[in-house]
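Take a look at the protein record below and tell me what you see:
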Amino acid sequence: MIGGFVLLVLAGLAAAAAALASADADAWSAHSAEVRQAEGRLIRLIQEAETGQRGFLLTGDPTYLDPFTRAGRELPGAEAHLRALTGDNAGQQARLDQLRPIIDDKIAELARSTERMQAGDQAGALAIVRTNAGRDLMRRIRATAAEFDRAEVELQAMRADRAAFRRSILAAVIAVALALAAALAWLVIRTDRRHARDLQVANDTLRLEIAHRERAEGQLRQAQKMEVLGQLTGGIAHDFNNMLAIIVGNLDMLVRRLSAEDTRARAMAENALSGARRAAELTKRLLAFSRLQPLQPQPTDVNRCVCDMSEMLRRSLGEGIAVETVLGGGLWPALVDRPQLESAILNLAVNARDAMEGQGHLTIETANAMLDQAYADAHAEVTSGQYVAVSITDTGIGMNQEVLAKAFDPFFTTKSVGQGTGLGLSQVHGFAKQSNGHVKLYSEPGVGTTVKLYLPRSLSAPEAIQVTSARLSPDFAGQKVLVVEDEAGVRSFAQSALRELGCQAIGADGAEMARRTLAEHPDVTVVLTDVVMPGETGRALVDSIQDTHPDLIVLYMTGYTRNAIVHNGMLDPGVRLLSKPFTVSDLGRELQAALVERRRTHVSP
C-alpha cells in the first residue's frame, strides 16, 4: 500500500513536471513571437520614415513628414525594447550592434534631404536621393533584419523540439508510474476484496435498517395522527349521521304523505329536508377528508364520465362560464369510484366558478400521465407509476403562495362568511389519497388555477353501464326484512320506510336479538343491519349466520364504518352499503338492486 502511494506521488510529480515543461515551451514560443514582433516594428518605423520623406520631396506637403517625425521619436524606444527582449542571446545582441549604425546612417540620410527640401532646395534634396546611398542603406537594414529573424525562428524551433522531447520522456515516465500503480492497486484490491465485500454488506444492511426504521417511524407518526383525527371525526359522524337518519328519513316520509294542496306545510317540510341533507353532505365531506368514506373503485372510462357531466356542468355553472372539455386520445381506464370522482369534479368546478365570479372559461382536460420515481420522492404518499390525469383549469383570481400552502387544510376558505365550508378541496384531497392517487395545485394570482387529479390506471377494461328500470321488482312487496339497529329512532324509521315500500319489517336492537328473531322467523329474506353497534358489529353478525342462512340478502347501513366492511378505504367485494342518512327512495333503490343481483346470480349457470 505504501509503495503504491509512493508510485502515485511520483506519477503526480512527473505529471506536474510535464505540465511545467509544456508551460515553459509555450512561454519560450510566445517570447520568440514577441521578439519577432518587436523586430518587425523597428523595421516598419524606418520604412514609414522613408515613405514620408519621399512623399514630402515629391509634393512639398509637410504632412508627409508625420511618419518621419514619429519614427525619429519612437525608434530609440523600439530598439531598447528589442535589446531587452534579447538580452539573454549574445548572437542577437551582436546583430543589433551591427544594425544600429546602419539605422543611424539611414535616418541621417533622410534628415539631410528633408532639410534641403524645407530650405527650398528641392533639386538638392533630390540629388541626395539620386546618389542611391539611402537605397543601399535600406537594403543592408533589411538583410540584417532578415538574418535576425531567421536566427530567432531557428531558436524557436529548437526550443519547441526540446520541449516536445521533454514531454515525451515525461509522458513515458507517467505511463510507467501509472502502470506500476495500477498493478499494485490490483494486487491490493485482490488481497482485500473479501474484507471490503463483508464491510460493504454490513454497511448496506445497516443503512437499510436505518431507512426502514425512519420510514416506519414516519409512517407511525402519520398513522397515529390520522388515527386520532379519524376517531374524532368518525365518532362525531356516527352519532351525527344516526340523528340525521332519523331527521331526514322522517321528513322524507312526511313530504311523501303531505297532500299537494297543503302547500305551506309541504314547503316547510321540504325546506327542513333540504337543510338536513346539507348537514349530511357536510358530514360526508368530513369523512372524505379523513379518508373514511367507503369507496367502490371500478375500472372507469374517465372520458365518458367527463362527457356525461359536461352538459350538467354547463347548466349548473351558469351562462357566464364557458365550459370546454379536452379529452385525451387512447386514455387508459382508471381504478376509481365513479360517483365520488363525479363529486370531486363538481366540487372543483363550483370552486372555479366562485373564483371567476360567474364569468370566465373552465377547461376540463384528460390525459395519460407517468409519475416517475423522482416526482414520487419529492411528494409524500405518491407512488411512481401510470396514472390518468384530470385537469380542471379556470381563469379566476388565482391564489398566492400563502393561500396555496393552506388550500387543502380543512375549514380553510377565502370566501366570505356563509359562502363556503372550506371542505371542498379537503374532500378532493382525501378522495385522491384514499383512491391511491394524487392531487396537485398550480395557481398564479390574476391568471387562474389548475387542479390536477391523478387517478391510478386500471389494467382492466371498464364494464358496460347497466341501465336498470326505476320500477320496483314484482316480488319486492313480498319481501320480509329484518332491521338490526341499536338506535331506536333509526330502527323505527327504517321499519316504517320498508312498510312504505310494501315490505314486511321486523326489528332487532342488536346481534343477539337478531339471531333469536331469525330463529323465530325463518321466512326472513333480507337483513338490513347497522355496521357499528355495541358489542358485536353487523359484519360479525352476518358471518355468524351465514352457514345457517346462506340465501339471506344482506344490506349494510352506516354513518361511519372502519375495518368492518371497509379495508384500505375500499368496500369488501360483494358488500352492499347504504350510507346514513337515507330516504325511502334510497332504500328502495338499494334493495331493488340487491334483489336484481340475486335473481341474476340464481339464473346464471
